[in-house]
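Worked Example 4.2. Consider the chain below.
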Amino acid sequence: MIALAEAPTAPAPRTRSENQIISELRETVSASRLSLFLQCRLKFWFRYVAGLKKPKTPALHLGGSVHQVLRAWNMARWKGTPMSLKDLYDVYQAAWGDQEEEPVSWDEDEDDQKKVGWRLLETYFRESSIAAYARPEAVEVAVDADLSRHGLPALIGVIDLVHQNRIIDFKTSSQTPNPGKVAHTNEVQTCSYALLYREATGKRESGIEFHSLVKLKNPKVVITALEPMSEQQQTRFFHLIEAYVAGLDRRDFVPSPGLQCVACEWFNECRNWR
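Applying the procedure from the previous section yields the following structure tokens:
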């Protein structure tokens, strides 16, 4: 967790006005942007409009390093050139050491956290439901979907993995995920993936899976399998995008005070909001 008293990194000099930035944000929407906007509009403003930056948390750095290894593993299988465990560890070492452009605020022992991340990966490779030789249909594919016929901006995003017509997303977690909560809290992401997949392939996904690598004393892998996006979910998702567009048009960048604020990296900036 970043110390609450820590000051933000100064933003780069602006080359665009706030109106120009908001106009560009209105042209497209992604799952991550939409989720943050719905979580706290002032936090969205800090990150995407003001362009302020914060050091990465240890958990975010660990998750990103793990993700890079899984991407390399999946890409190698797609190319038909499987990687050895040593090859994968070399990728992990490089990903972990890449902290120059995005410094990490280490409030925990870095070496301990590095070991935790690698244990998660070893557990996943040992217990994965995906065979090491199985060729995926797609890996880290950037896709966009034209939603103009619904009066909405274009949807953009990257799909981690498609295997046997199933969309797969990787997550690291400190707690064992609850299937019902996973379905609800990740609905923006799952709907986004489903729409992007359908736009790119012209067919309906067979389902969506979250592969959670859980950081316990004895790491484990939990797979949460969800049904394809329903019509009701799509309608709800479109209404959320409508709220995003309307909020940008109104410059509706207000805070959302709650228990989640305790761990927010923008706590002090929010307290000084006028």
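The radius of gyration is 20 Å. The domain at 18-274 is CATH 3.90.320.10 (Lambda Exonuclease; Chain A). Compare this with Example 4.1 before moving on.
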